[in-house]
Amino acid sequence: xxxxxxxxxxxxxxxxxxxxxxxxxxxxxxxxxxxxxxxxxxxxxxxxxxxxxxxxxxxxxxxxxxxxxxxxxxxxxxxxxxxxxxxxxxxxxxxxxxxxxxxxxxxxxxxxxxxxxxxxxxxxxxxxxxxxxxxxxxxxxxxxxxxxxxxxxxxxxxxxxxxxxxxxxxxxxxxxxxxxxxxxxxxxxxxxxxxxxxxxxxxxxxxxxxxxxxxxxxxxxxxxxxxxxxxxxxxxxxxxxxxxxxxxxxxxxxxxxxxxxxxxxxxxxxxxxxxxxxxxxxxxxxxxxxxxxxxxxxxxxxxxxxxxxxxxxxxxxxxxxxxxxxxxxxxxxxxxxxxxxxxxxxxxxxxxxxxxxxxxxxxxxxxxxxxxxxxxxxxxxxxxxxxxxxxxxxxxxxxxxxxxxxxxxxxxxxxxxxxxxxxxxxxxxxxxxxxxxxxxxxxxxxxxxxxxxxxxxxxxxxxxxxxxxxxxxxxxxxxxxxxxxxxxxxxxxxxxxxxxxxxxxxxxxxxxxxxxxxxxxxxxxxxxxxxxxxxxxxxxxxxxxxxxxxxxxxxxxxxxxxxxxxxxxxxxxxxxxxxxxxxxxxxxxxxxxxxxxxxxxxxxxxxxxxxxxxxxxxxxxxxxxxxxxxxxxxxxxxxxxxxxxxxxxxxxxxxxxxxxxxxxxxxxxxxxxxxxxxxxxxxxxxxxxxxxxxxxxxxxxxxxxxxxxxxxxxxxxxxxxxxxxxxxxxxxxxxxxxxxxxxxxxxxxxxxxxxxxxxxxxxxxxxxxxxxxxxxxxxxxxxxxxxxxxxxxxxxxxxxxxxxxxxxxxxxxxxxxxxxxxxxxxxxxxxxxxxxxxxxxxxxxxxxxxxxxxxxxxxxxxxxxxxxxxxxxxxxxxxxxxxxxxxxxxxxxxxxxxxxxxxxxxxxxxxxxxxxxxxxxxxxxxxxxxxxxxxxxxxxxxxxxxxxxxxxxxxxxxxxxxxxxxxxxxxxxxxxxxxxxxxxxxxxxxxxxxxxxxxxxxxxxxxxxxxxxxxxxxxxxxxxxxxxxxxxxxxxxxxxxxxxxxxxxxxxxxxxxxxxxxxxxxxxxxxxxxxxxxxxxxxxxxxxxxxxxxxxxxxxxxxxxxxxxxxxxxxxxxxxxxxxxxxxxxxxxxxxxxxxxxxxxxxxxxxxxxxxxxxxxxxxxxxxxxxxxxxxxxxxxxxxxxxxxxxxx
Length: 1193
Description:
- Helices cover about 55% and strands about 10% of the residues.
- The chain is built from 53 helices and 20 strands.
């Protein structure tokens, strides 16, 4: 049996998934009614609308039908029209009633139908008895784009109403003032006949006749209705200015309903309203206003049913109408009846419309399922949620298709729309699924029952014909390349499958990846075929396409097998650009460095025993880490030498080689992958030309990273872990099983041991490890027994250095010694080498000189030897006899009176110890010198400093010892005096300073002492220049006390005199101030002034304050006079002769000093009278000038 024979409906018939609102041909109507598939959602929606129209039990007359593009909402609207239309009502309602019965929840528990059979029968009876007219139109095709945008819906509804009544729809004035009048006079049909007799068709040519033959048609109208006012009608038609408003339209509708009964309904069926409104708020508000007024004006007899791709709230939101606004509530309430078709299952509709089986075929298919059930389950193993057949009924319903195919093809359609491969209408919806299923079923109708539709058969002529240019380009390269494949037909099938599932959305690809197993399942058409064999053939095609850069494989990840995907156009172009990148050794070296360094993390410095050695790495001729390094590590990837033994012959001692050349050459895949990876990395450094190119580059970067991780990094690590290693001229054996960092460290240490075999000689716990430890070692004292017979044996390191120095004729620079022992075969660091040399110095085998100065102090050596190695020289040590040391120690003890040094210690240690003590003594003496620098006995300290400094400047121990021995007697006397001064400073210096300060402070007071004190003053003043006052402090102190007592007595007398004089002055000043009404606070205070005058230890100053008391008096008197108030006349007192006299008699006070000097002696009374007369004249001059006077001294 052929597949064609199993279908209930002729598979060759025309099936148009798209419904046209204007196509009412008999064939179309019959097909659309008979093949309409009822779901629970559709049944409930139709009943809800029809019931509302019948019962008029809602607040407003708007109906909103929404569903996504291709969900069947236009077909639903047209079927609603069939149910209402008297011409098709019986057939449409019969099918609806049958569907209600079939989906009765009492019979089918899973049914979601909400319609009871009895209710549907009642509704059917009412509809058959009612008069219902419908006006069905697609609003997008009927509206006038040049019309008034403020009344778009109004114009459309009125025009469609006019057309429904047989009027023209283009000229409202012609319809309202001419056609309507003819209709009301029952002359309209007669008019049309007359027009027809003249050779015209009014239904088709009304608009043209109104423009070109207006007088002609008006004449015919006049003939039919003689009372017709043709002149007025002509003017209105020409102007076409009929008043159009919601109110006039409602009046028109009420007029239309006037002769209609209670069971009359008029339904406007408006398709694709949401697309027409889009986001234009004004249009939505126009529609809302019309629906609002219909309820008020037409008693719920006229309805507006709209279809839309969004529900009403989404339209309102797109028009930017807030949910809290008044408009929002109005719009949502006007469309009270709402039906959604979003839940309709396209595969169910398709199954019922296309795949419904004949009863005999159902029996045959049931037997086939029972027979092949296990094979079917085994062959169609797909990802979760992509189901094969779950039951026999499902098998019968879907066969020869497999249920998963409908879900997958919908995802393909949706993805292709998003990618721009097909028009947006070709979406995963009912319309597209019906179309592709019908096309595929027709294409496979001649196959035998038992075969299945493979998924690639969906990619048929219909599907390919839907591809736009972008989609065709995307598969073109694959189509062209597959022509080179040996089995082109099978290769093309794989390409078609790949093209569909590789272009799924990212989310869908995660669930249904393009794996070889999934591709194999999609190609299955025979459940008895060997699936493994088919899988192998698929894999061959996939490998071929990968080699040709048509597709690429994504690596397997945890839980996810290897997947495949197409290169995009931009990716193909980028792949070609990557291939053009020329890679040199430097580029490869950089990438190899990243690989190896990430695995072994080599350091630029490595520690081996005491030293830190610089390490350089060379990869393919490029150096890393350090240049001119102590140790060179080379990764040999490509060598002219055949084997590591040959390569070792020409190697250098300090070079360690990982000989990878042999293993790397054998792995061609690794070389190719690595070269491609390097090409990608180089390409990534080129400029980006566009945002798309940037995304493509990022994709290649990700792939390169994946290749790196899977196919490059691990193989290179494996080569590193297994390749031969060359150290100098030898190949290292017995390397064990260490890998990565462990292996690197192991071979590096063996290489160090080969290159620096003497490094172990400085591996001692006594060896300093840093500069601070070295400084501490150098500065430590040589104790008795440090280098006696038990400890006198040189270490091996000391012996080698001493032997080397013995072979040198001249002094050896320390820097040269450090350099020699840093090189192979020693490898000692500078701290260790310097320590060993210093040990030889401590043993008196060698001496240091610094800047050509011999016998350098330990502190200078410790602080400078690391920094100034080139300034240090090493020479043989001088020998000093024990006798000289003994005599020096005796002299030292005699001079300084100390027993803290011993002749039994090392001569250098003794020398350093004594010089340290000298330095301390010099420092202490200098400190004391600063304290007594202004006193004459400081000369003793200066002499001491000079002598000790002379000793301390000697650098030769022997000369140092001899110098002190020779100066023993004189030095002892000097140091004894220095000790006495030291004791004086501690015990008497404070008293000495008090006496000196007493003498200095009273230098002006000595004149006021009696003559009897003169000798004492002279003796005390001599202390200032006394060169040795140390033994004279008692008499000096006694003299100071005596003189101080005399001075205090004189001061007391002077202070009492000051108090007496100044108290008298203040008595006079206060009395005068009171008499003149002067404020007491305007001149000096008594207590403060007297205290200031007597508060001085200087007797001369006290005497001066007594002598200048008159000056103080005059000064204060002037201040008081200045503060005497001046009388004034009040502003409100009129000037008069009396007031003028009063002002004149007020006199100012003036402080006057008289010239009382005489130039000759006064000898007689007459001369005295004459003298006094002169004083009177001086005084009267002031009196005459209206002053009163105060005479002062």
